[in-house]
């Protein structure tokens, strides 16, 4: 802007004219023009108070808080005994986190005018932060004695109560403030945020969001109020809307690092990771590397890098931050989490242990220790740390979820569900709520006391949290409805690595015929490995989607023109169901990776076979069952695996049973059956190997369970978790017969056992998870011999086979060849059947489009929705 022309007059009145015009511009909502005119007034006469106050207000609105503070200090020098000027200077210093500067201003302002509620409130907060809570309480109580309904005093007393661990009292005070001043923006913001964070039910959280929206309507030009409203939008799952609101805030305050930091976090929620990183780096430039704001932003950048899988970069960044800000607890916690994800468990444990000792009142270091113990398969320690964290924060959803996952792995699925269910009810963050809900649902696959119908009903009850079920009229599927053209098929997973899913997927990716299928992979794999590279080489298109939100991932799939989206995770960790629930492709399938229904109407089909899901047994899930002719698995053994070892029963003259399944599958019913088997065969042994046996506590507990069920202590041989695949498979050389688990059968373990010459006895259950063994045994032609109808039959067959050593030895000599010649290893046949199934459902879709018009993507869900749990889903933690 040019210097404004003299308004037809020179002299002492010109500065006053500029100041008056600056005040008008400020009132009109144009802080940039106001600041320009106020500077002109100051240039003419820097001894007048109004231009300095106007400059400070304009800079505050523009987010230039340091300049605002400088202008206010000059104003104080001009009018040291004006209470309003002292108040403004003190409040700005308080906002900038400078209590030593703020306190004398606030104390003088209060001495000049004791009725200033905002001043009294800020001073009380400074006293509380200085470990003078009684003085803070007395100050606020004195103010309320003068003005019982002062909203500022009530707001800040509420902040003190919340800091003292009494959120209910805080809400009561804020409700009182709102009743006294219904349109008070600060009250609306504080109560809205308090309800979003601490409210006990969804309705209260929804009210909190409405209060924040009202505040933003009343103060559309205040960036900090827009930031609070954006927080509500993020909690509602409306990340794109939050980005738009925060974009306005940044336009108003382009130099405010806090506004840009908040915009970055919203972009991260929206899956705009690249833009989020740029915003954080810009915010850091604005804030400077030091100071509270810069430290927070730097910590957030380290967290972002970790979430994007850039672990080494994250670790280096956070270590550098802690050298300059060693007391930054958030940064230290983020570093611990990055070290944990990178597998540096010892370094992470040292850090979290130090933090727990330095901050005994803070639950997060204890949670970090719990997660570390879980990652290291020390489940007893994980539970102890988790319970310690919960004692410090009983309603922290992250702690509840972590503890639930650990208990599920230890074989307590009912307690796991109750904890994860509670986490879902309390969690205010949409993406986390979906993760916790998936964990709650997954625990039901391990429940021996639940029917297939109950498991399906529980999954269906959770659907509203993932999907809206409503078409988006603005997003039709534009795929060409040509039934004969080449299909674009996308596979979605976070497990494109050395993982069970990869062993059954790699043959499919390598076997797809180029003229039939164009292959896309959407990988959220955090730690890629050699298997990742192999899978990537077999795809036409590989998309790295770590860090993308559901909408961004769905938009990517739409841009790729996917015809069929195939989910390979269900409700397991890292799943991409929230994106698939938006129906980014005309057809969505669930295949391997989860042993049952997703519960989502957005998933059209579940790929299976006639043994895993018999046609005459009604499927209770939400999907239609698409049955392949032979088996729904294609197993690709690794090259150069160890040869089949001689049958140990030939030298021992007694049978050796084995189970290498996850211990969570070893239910009390399984233990009882194994106890009966071992009691009937005193010379028999049982090798048990699982990841949980890295924990000596669980080894001892499992042996005790088996002994209590009838086994001899010497019959049970726990095996330590093997370091690599060859070592793992070599242990099969010491076993004659595998004992499958129920109601959740093994899959990879059964295939590995048979490849290594060890037949597996299974039991056909009442749901998909309990019929995978039937599917695999049928495929190799051994179902008549090795598939039991019920527990008594399972026990009887195991005892009979345990006495028929020649039969076991004979199977061992031929089983690898039998397995290799079966449909389980026939890549060409399997892929032909799979592509025919894809072609069949694609043809059906084309016919529907011809008859009824295009289908559509779906609108996002209401992420404040709660599952409508059936009565059978007992809860409470």
Automatic annotation (TrEMBL):
Matching Gene3D superfamilies: 3.40.50.11380, Glycogen Phosphorylase B, Tetratricopeptide repeat domain
Keywords of this entry: Glycosyltransferase, Repeat, TPR repeat, Transferase
Sample GO molecular function, one term: protein O-acetylglucosaminyltransferase activity
Domain O-GlcNAc transferase C-terminal: 483-633, 653-833
Organism: Roseospirillum parvum
Signal peptide range in chain numbering: none
Leading EC class: transferase
EC number(s) recorded for this UniProt protein: 2.4.1.255
Protein's pathway: Protein modification; protein glycosylation
Top-level lineage group: Bacteria
The name this protein goes by in its record: protein O-GlcNAc transferase
Family listed: Belongs to the glycosyltransferase 41 family. O-GlcNAc transferase subfamily.
């Amino acid at each position: 802007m040019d210097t404004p022309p003299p308004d037809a007059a020179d002299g002492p009145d010109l500065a006053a004219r500029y100041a008056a015009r600056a005040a008008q511009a400020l009132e009109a909502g144009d802080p940039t023009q106001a600041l320009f005119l106020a500077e002109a007034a100051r240039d003419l006469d820097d001894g007048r108070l109004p231009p300095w106050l106007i400059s400070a207000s304009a800079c505050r609105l523009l987010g230039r808080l340091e300049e605002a503070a400088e202008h206010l200090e000059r104003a104080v020098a001009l009018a040291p005994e004006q209470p309003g000027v002292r108040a403004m200077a003190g409040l700005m210093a308080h906002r900038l986190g400078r209590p030593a500067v703020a306190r004398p201003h606030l104390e003088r302002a209060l001495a000049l005018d004791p009725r200033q509620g905002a001043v009294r409130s800020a001073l009380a907060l400074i006293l509380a932060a200085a470990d003078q809570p009684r003085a803070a309480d007395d100050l606020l109580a004195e103010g309320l004695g003068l003005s019982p309904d002062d909203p500022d005093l009530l707001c800040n007393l509420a902040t003190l109560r919340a800091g003292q661990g009494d959120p209910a009292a805080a809400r009561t005070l804020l409700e009182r403030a709102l009743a006294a001043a219904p349109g008070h923006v600060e009250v609306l913001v504080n109560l809205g945020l308090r309800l979003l964070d601490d409210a006990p039910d969804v309705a209260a959280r929804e009210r909190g969001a409405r209060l924040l929206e009202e505040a933003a309507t009343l103060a559309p030009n205040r960036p900090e109020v827009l930031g609070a409203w954006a927080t509500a939008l993020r909690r509602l799952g409306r990340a794109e809307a939050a980005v738009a609101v925060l974009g306005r805030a940044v336009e108003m305050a382009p130099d405010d690092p806090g506004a840009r930091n908040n915009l970055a976090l919203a972009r991260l929620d929206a899956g705009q990771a690249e833009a989020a990183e740029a915003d954080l780096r810009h915010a850091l430039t604005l804030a400077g590397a030091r100071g509270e704001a810069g430290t927070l932003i730097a910590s957030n950048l380290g967290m972002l890098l970790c979430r994007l899988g850039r672990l080494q970069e994250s670790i280096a960044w956070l270590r550098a931050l802690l050298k300059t800000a060693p007391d930054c607890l958030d940064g230290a916690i983020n570093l611990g989490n990055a070290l944990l994800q990178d597998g540096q468990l010892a370094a992470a444990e040292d850090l979290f242990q130090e933090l727990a000792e330095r901050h005994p009142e803070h639950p997060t270091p204890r949670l970090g220790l719990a997660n570390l113990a879980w990652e290291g398969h020390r489940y007893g320690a994980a539970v102890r740390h988790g319970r310690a964290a919960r004692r410090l924060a009983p309603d922290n959803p992250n702690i509840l979820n972590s503890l639930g996952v650990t208990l599920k792995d230890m074989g307590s699925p009912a307690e796991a569900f109750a904890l994860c269910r509670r986490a879902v009810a309390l969690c205010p963050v949409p993406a986390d709520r979906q993760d916790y809900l998936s964990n709650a649902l997954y625990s039901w696959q391990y429940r021996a006391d639940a029917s297939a119908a109950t498991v399906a009903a529980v999954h269906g009850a959770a659907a509203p949290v993932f999907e809206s079920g409503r078409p988006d009229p603005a997003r039709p599927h534009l795929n060409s409805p040509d039934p004969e053209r080449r299909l674009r098929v996308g596979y979605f997973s976070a497990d494109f690595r050395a993982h069970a899913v990869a062993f059954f997927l790699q043959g499919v990716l390598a076997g797809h015929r180029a003229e039939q299928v164009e292959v896309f992979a959407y990988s959220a794999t955090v730690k890629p490995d050699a298997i990742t590279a192999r899978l990537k080489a077999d795809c036409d298109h590989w998309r790295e989607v770590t860090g993308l939100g559901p909408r961004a991932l769905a938009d990517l799939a739409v841009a790729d023109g996917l015809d069929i989206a195939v989910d390979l995770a269900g409700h397991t960790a890292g799943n991409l169901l929230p994106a698939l629930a938006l129906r980014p492709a005309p057809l969505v399938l669930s295949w391997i990776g989860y042993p049952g229904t997703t519960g989502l109407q957005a998933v059209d089909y579940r790929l299976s076979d006639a043994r895993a899901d018999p046609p005459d047994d009604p499927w209770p899930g939400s999907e239609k069952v698409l049955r392949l002719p032979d088996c729904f698995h294609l197993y690709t053994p690794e090259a150069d695996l160890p040869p089949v070892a001689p049958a140990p029963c030939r030298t021992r003259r007694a049978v050796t049973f084995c189970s290498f399944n996850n211990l969570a599958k070893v239910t009390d019913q399984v233990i009882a059956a194994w106890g009966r088997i071992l009691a009937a065969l005193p010379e028999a042994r049982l090798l048990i190997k699982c990841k949980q046996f890295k924990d000596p506590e669980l080894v001892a507990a499992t042996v005790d369970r088996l002994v209590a069920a009838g086994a001899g202590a010497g019959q049970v041989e726990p095996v330590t978790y093997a370091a690599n695949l060859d070592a793992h498979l070599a242990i099969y050389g010491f076993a004659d017969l595998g004992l499958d688990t129920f109601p959740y059968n093994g899959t990879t373990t059964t295939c590995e056992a048979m490849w290594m010459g060890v037949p597996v006895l299974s039991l056909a259950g009442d749901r998909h998870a309990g019929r995978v063994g039937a599917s695999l045994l049928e495929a190799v032609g051994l179902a008549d011999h090795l598939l039991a109808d019920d527990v008594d039959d399972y026990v009887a067959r195991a005892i009979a086979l345990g006495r028929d050593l020649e039969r076991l030895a004979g199977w061992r000599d031929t089983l690898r060849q039998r397995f290799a010649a079966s449909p389980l290893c026939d890549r060409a046949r399997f892929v032909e059947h799979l592509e025919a199934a894809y072609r069949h459902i694609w043809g059906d879709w084309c016919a529907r489009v011809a008859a009824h018009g295009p289908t559509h993507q779906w609108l996002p869900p209401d992420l404040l929705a709660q599952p409508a749990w059936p009565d059978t889903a007992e809860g409470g933690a």
